[in-house]
Amino acid sequence: MKRGWITWNQTELPRPAFDARLEAARRRLAERDLPALVVYTDIWRSNRVRHFCNFMPYWNRALLVIPRETPPMLLCGLSPRVYPWIRSVTILDEILPSPNLPQRLLQLCAERAWTRIGALDFRAFPSDLYTPIGKGVAVEDISLPALPDQPELSMYRRAAMMARDGLKEELMRGVGLFDHDFTGLLERKFRRAGAEDLVILLTNGRTPPAPPRGEKLGSTFSISLALEYRGHWIKIIRSPAAQVSDLPGDAYLETLAGPYPYELGEGALFAARWETAHGGVRVFHGDTYLRAPQGAQLL
Amino acid sequence: MLNRDRLSQMKDLMAERGWDLLLLYGHTWRKDFFRSVININFSGPHAAAAIHRSGEVQAVMSDPWDAELVMDCPAAAGFGAGLEQLARRGGPVAIAGMEMMEARFVQAFSNPVSATFDVEEIRRIKLPREMERMRQAAQLADRGYEHFAGAIEPGMKEYELVAEVEAFLKANGAEDNFMLIASGGTEVTGMKPPTEREFREGDSVTTELTPQVDGYWAQICRTLVLGEPNSKQRESFAIFSEAQKAAEEFLRPGVNIADVARVQNDVFRKYGYGEYTGPKYTRVRGHGLGLHCDENPYILEDVNYTVKQGMTLIAHPNTYLPLSGYMVFGDSLVVTANGCEALNHTERKLFQK
């Protein structure tokens, strides 16, 4: 996971977009009279910090601190040797070496005389951070809906288009290939096209889609492709045996904007999946949607 | 799928510690505790293997698709609800991986204790079937590096090369691959994810490849020069080669891991580069390998741990030197009765193309 090309194209994602997101967080801090918000990130739960500053910890973990009055700071477990790279792909200037994250955060609170702070989805912090931070400073659990803004929606749409168009071109080539070979083919194609990460699951219909296991793919195989384009994940599921169909009412839904159990409120992004029977095997289908006022809208 | 030998060790541990329930927790990135007993490459966000004092095992998964893939024991989807159900049984609970588990899940239990250290200690000694997979992963790392060295060309971008290597490894059975890369000269101070930088003649190109086969990760570190290596690149590589050899010759059961770091660092000190063995320029002089690609113990002079037969690890004296910038060199090793054996068989040289 997460070892592809991490970059920041400021034309595609301009700095003012981050300023607006930080401002929204600061408004919430002001409502609660809190001096700063802390956001957790690691190699697989990177969406929320990336939303605010474009930082992606390809390794280790970090805390983003968003003070109400000053620019955000990164408390970072990575070596200072990679700070130039971090600065080149994020909006961040201030990066504080933090081999011990809770200790560094509490030191910062003491330096700034912060006796109460906010933490985004604090109960979802890893317990080895949650406990010492909670013992050292009063923490208010803050929830911010994970709703994409216009620049994010554009990037999610680009990811979805990359995945749909790419699979449309390659899907039939999978028939007769071993699942590992088809996975390799797609890895090369999408990573060269700029995908940051991929998760590919395949099945011949006797089980749900799963990581490749050395099976030759038949004419009714299904593929689940989760693709990340510059921090924006989408998921689609296709099979040569199934036509694209409308979202059924009993589809399984999952939020895509983070691992947390956000409700699928208006504006939220979600992946939907469903299955049908075809010649005695299970065929799967799915896509990524935006919950718009008029209902689910294909991204 | 169910590792019955490891399960037996876990049950012995539970009896010794007086635990009624042992949870082996995993999430998308760290599946290792879970997979040490139920070796399923789950795709949902969370999973836990629950071992009861009776010996019964059950899997609690986030995603219904994952629950369907578990064959040798009962499995249910619905992670939070599943944990709450387990918590209602009462009795002393231990969790391996508790530190990385979200607080809201830990809070489902009353006073759970961490089993992380105990379970890591058990996992360090690889079982015969685990060693087979480690060897397969190391062999794939060798083939992956051969592909890397064959594919790289001046003008190619770093991320394009990574795409080629990922494609090769996945086509040849890797579940995943942890890979870092860097290219350039003395300005390069460490490895990172690939960028759009194009390779140039004279570049020193460093990489660590870490393919995962059926859950188990093995690693190889090599440096390649595009074109003829200059005298400083050769001088630098000779130091790295001597340091890695020192570690390999020293490593055996009973030695302290701190000394495995020391013998590597002493080589750098001998040549006047002792300052480049500290945290300003490097992270570790190696680390454990297995179901996670960066396991304890870390090979550092301030880590006190006695090496045991059957451990798998990599010794890599990777660091920055002013001679030629950041350089890497290392092989995966298994500790044998009298020493150690390299799992990689890629030529030990400064590669050039």
Task: Describe the model.
- The complex is a heterodimer of chains A (299) and B (353).
- Chain A has 299 residues and is α+β, with helices and mostly antiparallel strands.
- Chain A folds into 2 domains: 15-142, 3-Layer(aba) Sandwich (Creatine Amidinohydrolase, Chain A, domain 1), CATH 3.40.350; 150-298, Creatine Amidinohydrolase, CATH 3.90.230.10.
- Chain A has 7 helices and 13 strands.
- Chain A has a 6-stranded mixed β-sheet, sandwiched between helices. Chain A has a 4-stranded antiparallel β-sheet with strand order 10-11-12-13, with no helix packed on it. In chain A, strands 7-8-9 form a 3-stranded antiparallel β-sheet, with helices on one face.
- Chain A is elongated, with a radius of gyration of 21 Å.
- Chain B is of the alpha+beta class.
- Chain B has 2 domains: 4-124, Creatinase/prolidase N-terminal domain (Creatine Amidinohydrolase, Chain A, domain 1, 3-Layer(aba) Sandwich), CATH 3.40.350.10; 128-352, Creatine Amidinohydrolase (Alpha-Beta Complex), CATH 3.90.230.
- Helix content of chain B is 33%, strand content 22%.
- Chain B is built from 10 helices and 17 strands.
- Chain B has helices spanning 4-17, 32-35, 64-69, 79-87, 103-106, 116-124, 128-151, 158-171, 231-250, 257-270; strands at residues 21-27, 46-52, 57-61, 75-77, 93-96, 113-114, 176-184, 204-213, 216-217, 220-225, 286-288, 312-315, 319-321, 325-327, 330-335, 340-342, 351-352.
- In chain B, the strands form 3 sheets. In chain B, strands 7, 8, 9, 10, 11, 12, 15, 16 and 17 form a 9-stranded mixed β-sheet that branches.
- In chain B, helix 7 (128-151) packs across helix 8 (158-171) and helix 9 packs antiparallel against helix 10 (257-270).
- Chain B is globular.
- The interface between A and B is large, with 48 and 52 residues.
